[in-house]
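[audit] Reproducing an earlier prediction to check determinism. Same input, same settings, fresh worker. If the tokens differ from the archived copy the diff job will pick it up downstream; this log only records the rerun itself.
[audit] input (399 residues):
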Amino acid sequence: MTPSISPAFDRFEPTREDRFTFGLWTVGNPGRDPFGEAVRPAQSAPHIVERLAACGAYGVNLHDNDLVPFGASARERDRIVGEFKAALEKHHLVVPMATVNLFSHPIFKDGAFTANDPQVRAFALQKTMQAIDLGAELGAEIFVLWGGREGVEADACRDPRVAVKRMRSALDFLCEYVRDQRYRMRFALEAKPNEPRGDIYFATTGHMLHLISTLAHPELVGVNPEVAHETMAGLSMAHGVAQAMEAGKLYHIDLNGQKIGRYDQDLRFGSEDLKGAFLLVRLLEGTAGGASYTGPLHFDAHAYRTEDEDGVYDFAKGCMRTYKILKARAEGFDRDPEVRALIAERGDAVLDPLLERYSSQGARTLKERRFEVDAIARVGLRYERLDQLLIEHLMGLRG
């Protein structure tokens, strides 16, 4: 007997208007891991473009060597890029973001921009400039930098303050390069606490935000938070993203799933910590009334090793559908009259102006104010009820 399909089913089907993107390295992952060889054949970049378009994706992102093999000749590079551009045009996909692989080749075993050998640091800049050129050629306006090897196992190998200075110098150099080339491109820095290094410099989004404030051109640099990386550090992804949004620095985002305390899993978005995913989508979509994020929604995730190629695109559609379902749940939650009553701002005509901006008179007024602290402390806030309402919306019982 064929199961019935809900009339609401189609509204969760992804479309280009949803701005969903995947990397060549995500759906193109053949399932290889440190304990086993590949379980799926390699897919060509044009084939990936065709299949993502059929799934309803908006765009595809890439590292330089996802598309052009390391060491390829100029002629080979141009042929590959030409075929890729033709596939993008044919299937109406775009490349919103590009990045560079500064972690796979053995030359980067001690890092790239922070390595002790100046030849390594110089090669890293050369490779990055070439990747920026490739991204610009493909139309990318965001360039993500993930320092996967920018870290240590033997911490005595360098003063970590030197690593900070080297990273700052590299970013200032690359910003000047983009300005010099007159590219319409901004950088997004991606944090991670560990793996593949024992400790990675700039371990969280907060670390990256502070580094940006010290750059020569901070207006060109933002962040690219990733669910898995913040979760590995035991942090709230929603809080890190909120800080980035409040600072106007959320230039890109990596969506996936992760179990806390594990290696970097890059699971299907929403497959772990569904409540956390809900709160993140609610924040990004601005359903509670705040400004929304309008950039690409990138899924930096991989299908299970159990899957064949068709299973990979089941995974891709699952990421996108889950996001859209959570968006609908968040909209229903924030429309709920009971929810709105519980989270309504409590205004105070006297105190609010004093709290918004310092003045000498305001400070004196506050110092003289008598607060009924015991009475205030006895007021229940009903957050248990609020959280239960969230769970019921998330499970589809309300809204």
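[audit] rerun output stored. Observation attached for the diff report: The CA atoms of residues 143 and 187 lie 5 Å apart.
[audit] end
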